[in-house]
Design brief:
This protein has helices at about 1-20, 40-45, 50-85, 105-125, 155-160, 160-185, 225-235, 280-300, 310-325, 330-350, and strands at about 25-30, 30-35, 130-140, 145-150, 190-200, 215, 220, 240-245, 250-255, 255, 265, 270-275. The protein is α+β, with helices and mostly antiparallel strands and about 350 residues long. It folds into two domains: about 1-185 and about 285-350, no CATH class; about 200-265, Pdz3 Domain (Roll). Strands 5, 6, 7, 8, 9 and 12 form a six-stranded antiparallel sheet that branches. A hairpin with a 2-residue loop joins strand 8 and strand 9. Helix 4 crosses helix 8. It starts with a helix and ends with a helix.
Length: about 350
């Protein structure tokens, strides 16, 4: 049902964008809509005057360069395991609200990704005395897939190498900082884990019930799913496990797992229990954190599609220009294309 609702909303918003196109307020290329504006330039101009941004963006360069090499290694590993047909947890997938991620949480989170990323590019550019031409957003149908800040190319080319690196790294660093901030806001909302199912014939069958909230396992406080996974991972076969819930304390004898005889299991499915029933806020923060971190990091990977390239590619190109001036474009392009192909093959093979 969520998929149908998502498709209906996308269709309505796409019609709205087509109306804006007819009025000359938006540009369309096939199913891609490009919106350009001069708005927010005054806001960026005023905010960019603080000296804080120089420190912020300098830290961003360090994080950006380290993340660039981190992502190269991770993409190489994804490709390696995909070729060997070995399963690997995590990985990369397309972000499509209503299809691969929840629709409303996904839309809200994507908006924060785009705004944080592009506004920070603009703020740092002006802080480095680089003028801005336009700001804008890009939609596929009506799904926001990106935004852009167009710096004055002459100003950018004349700026120092460090200024360029600050501008390139600023967007993704803002995404990473926002992800950390959103995660910090989630912590006070963690209030144990809720049982959502009990496996038939398991040690918990007939003892625990859906709806119970687990507060402690063997005396150790359980606030989050991470806490639960750690304690559940330490359970051994035939171990007596005491679970303190909102409905009392229960004693269960674990049995060995079929997939791993060295570990014990009690047979329950759980989800995060949120304080005060603030689930919408909690899961909005969760997706803001997840998408900002994921998209921020993937944008720091050196990826080049020819017509578009990530900030990671621009950072790599700028770094190489200080080592091998003449061939920096050629080598960075070749390297980024190789990483792009490895990522695409990993995505295809992992399916």
């Amino acid at each position: 049902m969520e998929v149908y609702i998502a498709l209906a909303v996308i269709a309505v918003l796409t019609v709205f964008l087509l109306i804006l196109e007819k009025k000359g307020k938006i540009e369309r290329k096939f199913l891609f809509f490009i919106y350009r504006t001069q708005r927010l330039k005054n806001f960026i101009e005023n905010v960019s005057k603080f000296k804080f941004w120089k420190v912020f963006s300098s830290i961003g360069v360090i994080v950006g360069v380290l993340s660039l090499f981190f992502m190269i290694v991770n993409i190489a590993l994804l490709f390696y395991f995909a070729v060997k047909r070995e399963p690997i947890e995590g990985g990369v997938q397309l972000v499509i609200p209503g299809i691969t991620i929840p629709f409303w949480y996904g839309i809200i989170a994507l908006i924060t990704v785009i705004l944080a990323h592009e506004l920070m590019h603009g703020i740092v550019a002006r802080n480095e005395n680089i003028r801005l031409k336009n700001l804008g957003a890009i939609f596929f149908a009506s799904i926001p897939i990106g935004a852009f800040v167009e710096p004055n190319e002459e100003d950018l080319n004349k700026s120092s190498s460090m200024s360029k690196l600050r501008v390139y790294a600023a967007g993704s660093f803002a995404n990473i900082v926002l992800a950390v901030f959103a995660t910090a806001l989630m912590i006070p909302l963690n209030d144990g884990v809720e049982i959502v199912g009990v496996m038939e014939g398991s040690p918990a069958d007939g003892i625990l019930e859906s709806g119970m909230v687990i507060k402690k396992i063997n005396g150790k406080e359980i606030k989050s799913l991470a806490d639960f996974m750690i304690e559940a991972g330490n359970i051994k076969p035939n171990q007596v496990v005491f679970l303190e819930t909102d409905e009392g304390v229960f004693k269960i004898v674990a049995k060995k797992r079929e997939d791993d005889p060295e570990r014990g299991m009690i047979g329950i499915y759980v989800k995060q229990h949120v304080f005060g029933g603030l689930e919408f806020i909690y899961y909005t923060l969760l997706w803001i954190s997840f998408l900002n971190l994921g998209i921020g990091l993937i944008n720091l990977a050196p990826i080049n599609f020819g017509v578009a390239a990530t900030d990671g590619h621009l950072i790599l190109k700028e770094l190489l220009s200080k080592l091998i001036k003449e061939k920096a474009d050629e080598i960075s392009g070749l390297f980024s294309t190789t990483v792009t192909m490895m990522l695409l093959f990993a995505l295809i093979l992992s399916r």
